[in-house]
Specification:
Length: 112
């Protein structure tokens, strides 16, 4: 069953303030979204699946069904500044041919 516009608006209103909490039933999992303090005066929406979050879900090396409820983050291994330095040092063609400079790291984060 899909969530309606009214339900979505009610969830957004609940999560707009500090310490808001919403429980959802998604694909047989109980997904709890809570607003928690991230830094002083900064809040993030945290995701808990069936009441908890496991640190092993963060890594993309092994897949877990709970990862579909988390925020996927894909970041390059090397920064753009480092790649520019390497292009100056060894040449653009060589850097373009090396697959190591195109590698990325995928993680699944519980905060939004």
């Amino acid at each position: 069953m899909k969530i309606t516009k009214e339900q979505r608006a009610a969830c957004a209103a609940t999560l707009s303030g500090p310490w808001g909490r919403v429980k959802l039933l998604c694909d047989g999992y109980e997904v709890v979204l809570t607003v928690e303090c991230y830094k002083p005066l900064k809040y993030r929406v945290m995701t808990y699946v069936n009441g908890f979050f496991k640190g092993e879900w963060i890594s993309a090396e092994k897949t877990y069904p709970e990862q579909k409820f988390l925020r996927k983050s894909v970041r390059p291994v090397y920064s753009a500044a480092f790649i520019r330095k390497m292009e100056k040092a060894v040449g653009k063609r060589w850097v373009a041919q090396e697959p190591v400079y195109k590698k990325t790291i995928t993680t699944y984060m519980p905060d939004w």
